[in-house]
């Protein structure tokens, strides 16, 4: 039995996680696995109920589960709280820290049925399937910062720290992932300027010897930002430090043209955290307009990366592709000539395909 | 009289600067300005002749000129020299430092005739005309760096420093530029995480009060990387710190699909430096295959930003657009049904249009 902590959160979070768990349950029935779902409070709704955006009970639940499925947090209602009580800064960051997830996996893939949603030409993005592996706990975002008065104004100093061990653990994730995919890894850095990037490149180069079956190349971050636009299909797995990954994973996501479709995984050595890339979209919450596919695909990533259930994960991904090919669309990706369905309907269609291999 | 130092450099540098100066001379005749061109050595060719990639005589020439036009430097022949003798690290960086150019202007524009060269859909990029203003002398690239041994490996610490004054001087450039263009400035930062970005945002917000006619908005860098793909035409002038600008200016350049066409300007409070974005392309050097348009447009930027000759600058830009509309193409942008011309021919066509207003 796999214990899954479900944290629906705010906005459309509850709607989309409901469909994700429904699809996971269907996959369990199909392939003979038992999933046990336990809900916890997080975000604004948790603050309203308990005064804390990340209550201790939720943390305890997550730590004692095998994996965590998160919906989304935040909304205008909580934007003016002190930073440490706001849903993002007060819940998401502490949760990642508590779970010590240091590798953020951001797939960017284009389902054939949706290739025209991209601003790029269809032939450039059709069949795109890349994963950005971003280091999540080090670098500039977590360095010491200070601001001081100087004549004529102020001066800010921030620091960026990386250690061999921090680079090794995320690089290993990327190599293992590359080995299971197309055996092609692009490590991104700015080694012509940054000392941290030179250490990064050395560590990756060393580790490459353990993975002779994986083709490794190194690319400067500014060139990578260009290459993602020029020819994104040249990539399979991209490995980057925290700040570069923040920028490049969002750029890669936008290439697909369907942000509402993209899942993510945050992995450490223990419990993994899975969540859609999209936000809580309070403007459409509760109206059956949300696209549950990002949450559903986050569930598939959980099966693959936390539980090693590759067959079930692939079945969910195939079901999503099939439902889209058959012309079903939620409001955000609706086009003329397609069938618009609700959040719940979309979840039901995918779940059915996963469980029976066909639509009823 | 305007004194222009011309540093052709390596690879295709001499071919393209020759056409740029030809076009500048034509603009001078048309509009009644006198330009005096004086050549200096830089890069690998300077190393071969003098043992230094940036000889003192070249530095003296640049400092005593009104502006500098650079071709390109570097090539495989010099790649294995010690870093301080290599063309890029030993010539370009010291030259920028010597001229104290702190604002790098990188226009990304799509000529209607070349819109299909982009990997983005024509309707997304047609008529694109944005400028990235990048801070060029501060931030992470120039901070102190150190590497130390720790148990189990090494640890690198780098520092990022920005002062109020460093931000003010580049921001002022961007505001002044925005005022002359569409009066729209997007300042890019990561103010939700970085203290330097919070200072950046404060300085820009303060300065905005002096420019009530300029519409200012602030955007996070990862969102900006997305928005450049989603809808690049929403932007006019983008202002960023050094590292973010390095990444975003290259991403923006790639949106155009025609890297061989893009000029740049590096400005301080004295002599400005103008150069094509493309490199020295040693593989095609000396074969009349190079596209001189980036160098020609760098000359137009010089007229605009160093000499304030807006009418002459605009005439050059219009001439380039016209020559392209008439179907003339260098090898790099050749398509079926167009007329392929040499580097020299392209320069002649543009110069003629600038001087006479028509092709002979
Ligand atoms: Mg991001
Ligand atoms: Mg760059």
Automatic annotation (TrEMBL), chains A, B:
Coiled coil: none annotated. GO terms for molecular function: 3-isopropylmalate dehydrogenase activity; magnesium ion binding; NAD binding. InterPro entries: IsoCit/isopropylmalate_DH_CS, IsoPropMal-DH-like_dom, Isopropylmalate_DH. It comes from the Bacteria. Its main location: cytoplasm. The keyword Manganese applies. NAD(+) binds at residues 75-88, 279-291. Substrate binds at residues 96, 106, 134, 222. Its cofactor is Mn(2+); Mg(2+). GO terms for cellular component: cytosol. Transmembrane segments: none annotated. Keywords: Amino-acid biosynthesis, Branched-chain amino acid biosynthesis, Cytoplasm, Leucine biosynthesis, Magnesium, Manganese, Metal-binding, NAD, Oxidoreductase. It holds the Pfam family Iso_dh. Belongs to the isocitrate and isopropylmalate dehydrogenases family. LeuB type 1 subfamily. Catalyzes the oxidation of 3-carboxy-2-hydroxy-4-methylpentanoate (3-isopropylmalate) to 3-carboxy-4-methyl-2-oxopentanoate. The product decarboxylates to 4-methyl-2 oxopentanoate. Homodimer. This is 3-isopropylmalate dehydrogenase. It comes from Desulfofundulus salinus.
């Amino acid at each position: 039995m796999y214990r899954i902590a479900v944290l629906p959160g705010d906005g459309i979070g509850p709607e989309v996680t409901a469909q994700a768990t429904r699809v996971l349950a269907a996959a369990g029935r199909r392939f003979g696995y038992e999933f046990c779902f336990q809900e916890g409070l997080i975000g604004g709704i948790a603050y309203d109920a308990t005064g804390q955006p990340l209550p201790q009970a939720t943390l305890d639940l997550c730590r004692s589960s095998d994996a965590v499925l998160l919906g989304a947090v935040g909304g205008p209602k909580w934007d003016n709280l002190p930073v440490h009580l706001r849903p993002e800064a007060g819940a998401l960051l502490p949760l990642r820290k508590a779970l010590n997830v240091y590798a953020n996996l951001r797939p960017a893939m284009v389902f054939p049925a949706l290739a025209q949603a991209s601003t790029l030409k269809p032939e450039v993005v059709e069949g795109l399937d890349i994963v950005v592996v971003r280091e999540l706990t080090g670098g500039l975002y977590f360095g010491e910062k200070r601001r001081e008065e100087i004549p004529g104004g102020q001066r800010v100093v921030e620091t960026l720290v990386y250690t061999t061990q921090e680079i090794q653990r995320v690089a290993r994730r990327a190599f293992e992932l590359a080995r299971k995919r197309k055996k092609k890894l692009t490590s991104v850095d700015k080694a012509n300027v940054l000392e941290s990037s030179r250490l990064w490149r050395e560590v990756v180069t060393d580790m490459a010897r353990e993975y002779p079956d994986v083709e490794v190349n190194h690319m400067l971050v500014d060139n990578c930002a260009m290459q993602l636009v020029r020819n994104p299909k040249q990539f399979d797995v991209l490995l980057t430090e925290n700040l570069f990954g923040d920028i490049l994973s969002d750029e890669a996501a936008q290439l697909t043209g369907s942000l509402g479709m993209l899942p993510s995984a945050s992995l450490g050595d223990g419990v993994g955290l899975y969540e859609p890339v999209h936000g809580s979209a309070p403007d459409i919450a509760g109206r059956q307009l949300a696209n549950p596919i990002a949450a559903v695909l986050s569930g598939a990533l959980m099966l693959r990366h936390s539980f090693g259930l590759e067959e079930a994960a692939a079945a969910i991904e195939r079901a999503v592709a099939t439902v889209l090919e058959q012309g079903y669309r939620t409001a955000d990706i609706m086009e003329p000539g397609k069938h618009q369905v609700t959040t719940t309907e979309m979840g039901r269609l995918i779940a059915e395909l996963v469980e029976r291999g066909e639509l009823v």
